[in-house]
Amino acid sequence: MKLVVLGSGTSVPHPQRASAAHWLETSGGSTLLLDIGASTVHRMAQENLDWVNLDAIWVSHFHLDHVGGLFPFLFGTKYAPATEARRKPLTVYGPHGLEKLFRAFDAAGDYDLLKQPFPVEIREVAPHAAFTMLPGLSAETFSTPHTTESLALKLIDTDNASLVFTSDTGYTDALATFAQNVSLFLLECSFFRDKPVESHLELAEAMRLAAQSGARRVMLSHLYPQWDDIDLAAEAKKLWSGETIEARDGLRVEI
Ligand SMILES: [Zn+2]
Ligand SMILES: [Zn+2]
Questions:
Q1: What is the tens place of the pLDDT at every residue in 136-168?
Q2: How far is CA 19 from the centre of its chain?
Q3: Which of 31, 74, 146, 176 could disulfide-pair with 168, CB 3.0 to 4.6 Å?
C-alpha cells in the first residue's frame, strides 16, 4: 500500500499541518481516504492525487477535523466537470450516526449531496466489525476511548501489508493487541507531554503502545502545535528503539 499524508494536524489552524486526512492506495490500485478533515478537498489536488476516482472514505468519528471535508467534497464532485463522466460508486464508511449526521447537514442547506453523477453509499459499521472495504482489502474496527462513536481501523491488503489507523484516541492497552505485528501503526499523538485531556495520547503512551504492539514501523500524526519546536523522532527514540516516523503534510510512505 502507499500512504500519502494530507493532513497531520488537528482542529487548530496551522500553517504547515492541515486537519486529519491520509490517502491510501492498495496494491490493487483502489484508493481510500482515512478521515476527511476540513482541508482535505484542496489538499488532494495539491498532491496531484486522483480525487475524481476516489473509491472510499473512512470517517473515524464526527469531530470536524476528521469529517468536516466530507460535505465540501461531495459538493465539489456534484458540480466538478472532472466527475461528470464518473459512474463507479463511492462508499463512505463510518460509525453509527454517520447517516443521521449526513442527512441533517444535507437537509439544512438543501444540498442534495447524494444526487451525483455516480452512486454514493453511506455504510455504518459497528465496533469489532470485520468486512471487505475494497476489493482485496479486509477491514476490522475497534472502539476507541475518544468519543462514543470513535473507531480505530485495521486494514490488511492482499499482499499481507497491514495498517492500523487509530485516529483520535485516549490510552488503552487493548489498542496494542488490536495492532499486533502490523506493518504500519498510524497513531495519533496529540501531545508531547502533560496532555490536558484523557481523550488523546501523549508521546510516552504512544511509545508504550508501539512497543507492546510489535509493529514494524510507527507513524505519529494528529500533532497539536505543542509539537512545533520538538524533534519528534529523536524524542520517540528515547522511549522506543523502533522506527518512528513524524507525519508531515505531503509525506509519502510505502507500506
Ligand atoms: Zn482530531
Ligand atoms: Zn476527535
A1: 999 999 999 999 999 999 999 999 999 999 999
A2: 10
A3: 146
How many residues does this entry show for the chain? Answer: 255
Residue 246 Cα to ligand 2 midpoint, Å, equals 19
Measured between alpha carbons, how far is 213 from 104 in angstroms, rounded to an integer?
Answer: 39
The β-bridge partners of 141 are 153
| Residue 83 CA to ligand 1 centre (angstroms) | 29
Coil, helix or strand for 22?
A: strand
Closest residue by Cα to residue 186 from 170, 208, 163, 202: 163
Using the mean position of ligand 2's atoms as its centre, give its distance from the Cα of residue 64 in Å.
8
**CA 93, 104, 123: angle at the middle one, nearest 5?**
15
Cα 186 to averaged position of ligand 1 atoms, centre (Å): 14
CB atoms within 10 A of CB 35: 30
Q: What share of the chain has pLDDT > 70, as a percent?
A: 100
In angstroms, what is the span from residue 64 Cα to ligand 1's centroid? 8
- 66-109 tens-digit pLDDT: 999 999 999 999 999 999 999 999 999 999 999 999 999 999 99
Q: Kindly report the number of other CB atoms within 10 A of residue 138's CB atom.
A: 15
Return the SS3 of 156: strand
Query: What is the CA(94)–ligand 2 centre distance, in A?
Result: 14
Contact 152, 121 (CB under 8 A): no
C-alpha cell at 197: 485531556
Kindly give the distance from the C-alpha atom of residue 89 to the centroid of ligand 1, in angstroms, as a whole number: 28
Ligand 2 centre from 199 Cα, in Å?
A: 8
Q: How far is the CA of 168 from the centre of ligand 2 (A)?
A: 5
Ligand that lies nearest to the alpha carbon of residue 169, given by its number in the listed order: 2
